Amino acid sequence: MIAGYATPEGTKQYQDRFELQCGEGHFQKAGPLHWSSVGIGTYLGNADDDTDDLVYQSIVNCVNAGINVIDSAINYRGERGERCVGRALEELIAQGAVHRNEVIVCSKGGFLPQSLGVEWFQERYASGEMEGIGMDDLVADCHCMHPLFLQDQLERSRQNLGLETIDVYYVHNPETQLGNVPQEVFWDRIEKAFAYLEQAVAEGKIRAYGLATWNALRLPPGQAKHLSLERAKKIARSVAESGADHFRYVQLPFNLMMREAVGRPTQPLNGKNTSAVVAARELELIPVVSGSIAQAKLEPLSEAQRHLFGDDPFNDLQRALQFTRSTPGIATALVGMKRISHIEENLAVCRHAPMDGAQFKAIFQSL
Q1: Which end of the chain, N or C, is surrounded by fewer C-beta atoms within 10 Å?
Q2: What is the pLDDT of residue 281?
Q3: pLDDT tens for residues 107-125?
């Protein structure tokens, strides 16, 4: 197990080493750490050795070229995603290409990690050997937030990644349970999950935690899958023994087609509704964007929209990534990449400066 975790000094050291070969503004400080404007995701792909090799090599190539954010989850390709991250980090650190304190590693727990489903959960967690957890804690045959489940999943993730400490650990798509259990049950489960994650911080197994969502922060109040960040933050503060909680991050999709995180007032805050990104920042949460190019399923841009991007020699997918990583208030834009051509295209974007606020606004308003 590799010791250490991302630090302000380490991530600044990484920034200093790559700043000249990357565009101005590619790195920014979000919270105490320095983040590359693009992070690598490890979600998509077949659960086979060939895909493992591609994901592993992609991580190595990206970390060696100015990307210091890696995102995974225990259920990505049946734990293979995390293992690819672990394999790549082990090699990079052993070779001296990067230090552990320079790289921000994120993972998630909540979904069943294997395809074995309900029978696997029942045998492992609800057979009576683990007191306090039962089949009622499994929702939609795939999702659990019980502290005993999260504890077990976190230990598996640490082993898969080969890391003593994970920098950011998310509860994965908690809205999976919304609409399936009563609101009071849902929030009680969030409270218990947060209490466990505060304990995991104290034990040095994670540095901070968050909520990784898909629909929860894009939907307005009143929708079944809507989640209130204000309420979640209040819960985190209530369970933190010191009063200083470690609920620091939210992950949510944003791209040219899915613009709700910035453009829709979905979050009640101090009696008014505002966007998820603004609410997160007001609550001292750091937004991380997923789905940055909508898994390459974007509609073509018009010539007028392309013109707004300026003279940079980008194709439409590169323009999409440029747009997302330029979103005001976010730490990084996550994108999955395995093919060499895609890696090179994304790295080419990193060698240009992000758009300024006026250009971002003009493109946003054109959509």
Answers
A1: N
A2: 97
A3: 999 999 876 688 889 988 8
DSSP-assigned states of every residue in 136-168: GG-BTTTB---HHHHHHHHHHHHHHHTBS-EEE
Q: What is the pLDDT of residue 241?
A: 82
CA distances from 178 to 29, 216, 254 (A): 34, 9, 21
Pairing status of strand 33-36 against strand 27-30: antiparallel
What is residue 256's DSSP assignment?
Answer: S
Return the structure tokens found at 118. Answer: 């309900």
**Residue type present at position 30:** A
The 10s digit of each residue's pLDDT in 21-80 is 999 999 999 999 999 999 999 998 999 999 999 999 999 999 999 999 999 999 999 999
Q: Are 280 and 250 in contact (CB under 8 A)?
A: yes
351 token code pair? 């060698």
Q: What's the distance, CA 154 to chain centroid?
A: 16
Distance CA 66, CA 78 (A): 28
Q: Which residues contact 182 (CB under 8 A, 6 or more apart)?
A: none
Q: How far apart are CA 114 and CA 109, in angstroms?
A: 12
- Scored b (16 or more CB within 10 A) or e, 178-187 reads beebeeeebb
d(CA 281, CA 188): 25
Instruction: Please provide the size of the chain in residues.
Output: 367
